[in-house]
Amino acid sequence: MTALDERRPTPEAPPADPAIHKAATARKNRKRRALFRRDRTLLLMVLPALLLTALFAYVPIIGNAIAFQDYSPYVGAFENPWVGFANFERVLNDEAFWSAVRNTLTITAFQLVFFFPVPIMMAILLQGLLSPRIRSLFQSIVYLPHFLSWVIVISIFQQILGGAGLLNQFLRDNGIEAVNLMTQPDTFLILVTSQALWKDAGWGIIVFLAALSAIDPSQYEAAAMDGAGRLKRMWHITLPALRPIIILLLILRLGDSLSVGFEQLLLQRDAVGAGAAEVLDTFVYYSGIQNGDWSYAAAAGLIKGVISVILVLGANKLAHLFGEAGVYQKS
Amino acid sequence: MSITTRPIDSSHPRTSKVVRPAWEEPRAPLEAGARAIVLFGMAALIVVPLYIVVLTSFSSQATITAAGGMVVVPGELTFAAYEQILSGGVVTRAVLVSVGITTVGTAISLVVSVMAAYGLSRPGSFAHRPILFFLLITMFFGAGMIPSYLLVSNLGLINSYWSLILPSCISVFNIFLLRGFFMGIDQSILDSARIDGAGDWRILSTMVLPMSKSVITVIGLFYGVGYWNAFFNATLYINDSEKLPLQVILRSYVLQGVSVPGQVSVGSGEVATLAVQMAVVIIALVPVLIIYPFLQKHISSGVMIGAVKG
């Protein structure tokens, strides 16, 4: 590390003499300029990523202004009439919007209970396997679906559970009435959760395996010597070791509660119907892109975006209250 | 397919041998059996559907009719479905489009990400904190679908392949992951190269890149899988049916039951519609299967774990 790196400003009282003060700022500026000259290649390297981020992540944030306009694609960007919060009022008075909110939160809550614990249990089960070869074979198999696209996953489910799928072939062969589980609104919640489990539960164990392998085995040995049985060891050693990562993932999930597998839902929304399968993201898509109600959809999207940020910040605060590190820390 | 894997914790003394540690009480056979059944069941739930899809795609019309749909027990096998969809037409073109986007996109994503990560990896470099902050914010606040669509539309990128590459070109997460890795490289080596007069381009290409082959490979594979699997951006930005990538074709063909225009004689003659549909699923799946062993190797060697841990 060079001397230039040691430029942390020392908190000192402002010098009484303006001349000294001026000299100090001049020195600081000179240092900054020297640093800039030294690092300009580095800055040049970062530039493409910065431009792409500015264009495709920041410009659309400003573009959210159309939520306050009565936007029409045929008029110039600044000629659309400003309408204040009218679009937001329309969104908040729309029964379809609230139905989408309900569906989103229901799916999130359901998956928190029936998806979230599964990878933890799988990891603990797997950890107890003694043969390394079987363990890595199992890992190879259960990681794989994570890398398949949602289109493929749902196509496969369709062929197994759909109207002409394997399940119904079997039911019909045995004289039982066929059911198309892919179009049933009543069981849709279970369907999306099992799809999510099929695709991502295996991948989810990876972080827990890492945490488990960081446990010092002598802890288990000492506990066993002291007479702790298998269950007691799991309760007092395994679970506490997993606690930080569980809390971190819970926070991330809570902050993300308004997003529930957009592609997954979009692909099935037409088959199942908006009543059960319309979530916030598909609501924005259908009202904006499909129906051309741009300002309305932008307003709904903005509501979702702002609440999501609040949720992330809130969840992180919660983690700090529990004494955990959280996603980020105040530095 | 050969899957080369290393167990995640190969250094772990407890699992390096199949021997149970001396202090652990012997397993009840019932418990060991239950554990084996549960794990085997989970693996079967993943493997069996894939097997059925593969088998059906290779089955003849007669076998499919006899089975009444998806084929579980192998009957007459044929390549007819693959011959039909790969002999030109919609699926063939979609495969080419997807291959092109995946190749070009991955190359651009990797170059931009590696440069950015290296550019931000020198301790105390000029303005690195505000730049990191600028990038990080986008991980917490997404601008939303509508303004993003309007932007791409205003840039004139509708129906352009660039709309499938540029908006999703960089993942801030991947940049941070790479940066973390680069910062782990011993800075004193790089500093001595600087004293010897090497510039940053030179240091990056001759020292940093060779030292980070594995992390760069894994990030490249992740970008590649992302481009290959992307489906929504094409439904959003591409209207021209000639330019649609494979995932969109797969959707309209298998999920929406559309017979794709230009695909003549589907379901007629000897080739079963179902076999053709399953063949499209398999073609969409094969590239992922091919690179999967490489991914597996690197995932197991711990690159990802460090990243996920932060």
UniProtKB/TrEMBL annotation, chain A:
Keyword RNA-binding assigned to the entry: answer is no
Q: Name one Pfam family in it.
A: BPD_transp_1
> Where are the annotated segments for Disordered?
1-20
**Listed Basic and acidic residues bias regions:** 1-10
- Which coarse location class describes where this protein primarily resides? membrane
Name the Gene3D superfamilies for this protein.
Answer: MetI-like
Q: How does it sit in the membrane?
A: Multi-pass membrane protein
What is its subcellular localisation? Cell membrane
Entry coiled-coil feature ranges = none
Entry GO CC:
plasma membrane
Q: Does the keyword Cell membrane apply?
A: yes
**InterPro entries recorded:** MetI-like (IPR000515), MetI-like_sf (IPR035906), UgpAE/MalFG_permease (IPR050809)
One biological process term from GO is:
transmembrane transport
Q: Which parts of the sequence belong to the ABC transmembrane type-1 domain?
A: 101-315
Q: Which keywords annotate this record?
A: Cell membrane, Membrane, Transmembrane, Transmembrane helix, Transport
Where would you find the membrane-spanning parts of this chain?
A: 41-63, 107-130, 142-161, 196-215, 235-255, 294-313
Classify the source by domain of life: Bacteria
Record-linked PANTHER family: BLL4140 PROTEIN
Which family does this protein fall into? Answer: Belongs to the binding-protein-dependent transport system permease family.
Q: What is this protein called?
A: Sugar ABC transporter permease
TrEMBL record, chain B:
A GO biological process of this protein is: transmembrane transport
Protein's membrane topology? Multi-pass membrane protein
Q: Which domain of life is it from?
A: Bacteria
Task: Give TM segment ranges.
Answer: 36-55, 62-82, 94-120, 132-152, 164-182, 274-295
Residue ranges of every copy of the ABC transmembrane type-1 domain listed in the record? 95-295
Q: Which InterPro entries match?
A: MetI-like, MetI-like_sf
**Gene3D superfamilies, sorted:** MetI-like
Its subcellular locations are: Cell membrane
Name this protein carries in UniProt: Carbohydrate ABC transporter permease
User: Which species does the entry assign this protein to?
Assistant: Cryobacterium lactosi
Ordered alphabetically, the record's keywords are: Cell membrane, Membrane, Transmembrane, Transmembrane helix, Transport
Q: Which family does it belong to?
A: Belongs to the binding-protein-dependent transport system permease family.
Q: Single GO cellular component annotation?
A: plasma membrane
